[in-house]
Write a structure and sequence with these properties.
single chain, 84 residues, alpha+beta, four-stranded antiparallel sheet, 4 strands, 35% strand
Amino acid sequence: MAFQILFITEGDAIHPAAEIQFDHQRLCIVRFSPAGAPELEFVQDLYVGGDVAMIFPFEEFMDTLRIALDDLVAWRQNLEELDR
Protein backbone atom coordinates (compact mmCIF):
# COMPACT_ATOMS: atom_id res chain seq x y z
CA MET A 1 0.00 0.00 0.00
CA ALA A 2 1.37 3.43 -0.93
CA PHE A 3 -0.32 5.16 2.02
CA GLN A 4 1.38 5.73 5.37
CA ILE A 5 -0.04 7.21 8.58
CA LEU A 6 2.19 9.22 10.92
CA PHE A 7 0.70 10.08 14.29
CA ILE A 8 1.76 13.48 15.58
CA THR A 9 0.87 16.02 18.25
CA GLU A 10 0.24 19.69 17.60
CA GLY A 11 0.46 22.83 19.70
CA ASP A 12 1.64 23.42 23.27
CA ALA A 13 -0.88 20.96 24.70
CA ILE A 14 -1.16 17.44 23.38
CA HIS A 15 -3.52 17.59 20.42
CA PRO A 16 -3.33 14.32 18.49
CA ALA A 17 -3.35 14.45 14.71
CA ALA A 18 -2.58 12.01 11.92
CA GLU A 19 -0.63 12.90 8.82
CA ILE A 20 -1.50 10.74 5.84
CA GLN A 21 1.21 10.38 3.22
CA PHE A 22 0.95 8.91 -0.24
CA ASP A 23 4.16 7.50 -1.68
CA HIS A 24 6.10 9.46 1.01
CA GLN A 25 4.44 12.75 -0.01
CA ARG A 26 2.30 14.55 2.58
CA LEU A 27 -1.34 14.46 1.50
CA CYS A 28 -3.50 15.54 4.44
CA ILE A 29 -3.75 15.95 8.20
CA VAL A 30 -6.65 14.55 10.21
CA ARG A 31 -7.38 16.24 13.56
CA PHE A 32 -10.27 17.22 15.79
CA SER A 33 -11.73 20.73 15.87
CA PRO A 34 -12.07 22.47 19.26
CA ALA A 35 -15.71 21.31 19.21
CA GLY A 36 -14.55 17.70 18.80
CA ALA A 37 -15.54 17.14 15.16
CA PRO A 38 -13.03 15.49 12.82
CA GLU A 39 -11.34 17.83 10.34
CA LEU A 40 -9.37 17.00 7.21
CA GLU A 41 -6.75 19.45 5.93
CA PHE A 42 -5.18 18.80 2.54
CA VAL A 43 -1.61 20.10 2.40
CA GLN A 44 0.60 21.11 -0.47
CA ASP A 45 4.31 21.42 -0.01
CA LEU A 46 7.65 20.26 -1.29
CA TYR A 47 8.05 17.49 1.29
CA VAL A 48 9.74 15.21 -1.24
CA GLY A 49 11.85 16.25 -4.20
CA GLY A 50 10.54 15.34 -7.60
CA ASP A 51 7.01 14.79 -8.80
CA VAL A 52 4.62 12.38 -7.14
CA ALA A 53 1.46 11.51 -9.05
CA MET A 54 -1.32 12.19 -6.56
CA ILE A 55 -3.73 9.80 -8.25
CA PHE A 56 -4.66 6.84 -6.09
CA PRO A 57 -7.47 4.32 -5.49
CA PHE A 58 -10.34 6.05 -3.71
CA GLU A 59 -11.27 3.05 -1.52
CA GLU A 60 -7.67 2.63 -0.39
CA PHE A 61 -7.60 6.31 0.64
CA MET A 62 -10.94 5.98 2.48
CA ASP A 63 -9.73 2.85 4.31
CA THR A 64 -6.57 4.70 5.37
CA LEU A 65 -8.63 7.69 6.51
CA ARG A 66 -10.90 5.42 8.58
CA ILE A 67 -7.91 3.76 10.25
CA ALA A 68 -6.37 7.15 11.08
CA LEU A 69 -9.63 8.49 12.51
CA ASP A 70 -10.33 5.34 14.57
CA ASP A 71 -6.82 5.47 16.03
CA LEU A 72 -7.12 9.19 16.79
CA VAL A 73 -10.42 8.60 18.60
CA ALA A 74 -8.76 5.90 20.72
CA TRP A 75 -5.75 8.13 21.40
CA ARG A 76 -7.97 11.02 22.48
CA GLN A 77 -10.02 8.74 24.75
CA ASN A 78 -6.83 7.47 26.39
CA LEU A 79 -5.68 11.06 26.99
CA GLU A 80 -9.04 11.93 28.54
CA GLU A 81 -8.81 8.91 30.87
CA LEU A 82 -5.31 9.95 31.96
CA ASP A 83 -6.63 13.42 32.85
CA ARG A 84 -9.24 11.99 35.20
